[in-house]
Amino acid sequence: METNQTATASYIISQEQLLEHWQGHRRLTRRVIEVFPEDKLFSYSIGGMRPFSVMAMELIDLAGGISGIVNGEWKSTDEMSHANGNLPKTKAELLVLWDEVTEQIEKYWPQLSAERFQEVVMAFGAYEGPVYSTLLYFIDNEIHHRGQAYVYLRSLGITPPPFWERGN
Amino acid sequence: METNQTATASYIISQEQLLEHWQGHRRLTRRVIEVFPEDKLFSYSIGGMRPFSVMAMELIDLAGGISGIVNGEWKSTDEMSHANGNLPKTKAELLVLWDEVTEQIEKYWPQLSAERFQEVVMAFGAYEGPVYSTLLYFIDNEIHHRGQAYVYLRSLGITPPPFWERGN
What we know:
The structure is a homodimer. By secondary structure, chain A is mostly helical. The two termini of chain A are 30 Å apart. Residues 1-7 of chain A have low confidence and may be disordered. Chain A has one domain: dinb family like domain (Four Helix Bundle (Hemerythrin (Met), subunit A)). Helices cover 55% and strands 7% of the residues of chain A. In chain A, helix 1 packs antiparallel against helix 6 (91-108) and helix 3 (52-63) runs parallel beside helix 6 (91-108). Chain A has a two-stranded antiparallel ribbon with strand order 2-3. The longest helix of chain A is centred in the last third of the chain and has 25 residues, at 131-155. Chain A is globular and about 45 Å long. The interface between A and B is large, with 49 and 49 residues. Strand 1 of chain A pairs antiparallel with strand 1 (11-14) of chain B. Chains A, B: Belongs to the DinB family. Chains A, B: This is DinB family protein.
């Protein structure tokens, strides 16, 4: 096996398992985007919160941070589409961006050595933390906003896809 | 360092890091319970979804699965309070149950060897998977329902605690 750098720690989740976990969540979120009526995706809101299209763009922006983790070239927070308003206009465009990031993750992930996951990075020039924690933040933030999308859908009378289904 | 059993895998997240990640999320969820007005915690709903008190009881029931992982004695799904309606009646009672599980997690976690995280368990007699994946499911399910609570709170005009704050 490969070694990890912290001699006293017990490592319990593999690099391959974290990738599958992440992509499984992203497959579910993609289905949530798909099930939204086109207009509601871009307009529907509860309690002054953002439409799910903007949240989904945030998820794409954050997941695109995989390239920053690998090559150190991060977009700044102002350069992120969900922050500067450079948003897709249709569900189809949003899904194209979604799928591009899926491919980026698959491309960059094998370029990370196991040791890198414990190295500290400054994500998007603003958020400092170890790589594993930065990646968990991307995943957690996706689950958080997707959970909000479930409320939007339920309040529209639409049944969201089952939370536990993560396959293709 | 301790060894993991899969010779070809690169392990990237330590047992201590996963515990801190989980308890950090649980601290945030506890603050979300606290910020709910007492009556809304038990009654407020959007789109026919459950009040957050019932979701929070589900989170307590699932997190209590830590004892099942360690000693193999699982409650059945019918024995879980959120499923059989044996629910706390006040926020204070809910928080007592919350804090009891926090202590259980701290007690049981050190009893898990690193190897156990890759062993398959049948959680609550119903859900089969490796321990690491079962634990990630508990955490993800908490993030998911807490995200829904954020919509409940926003629709009530209440600002939820910041998602990224996980400390005490």
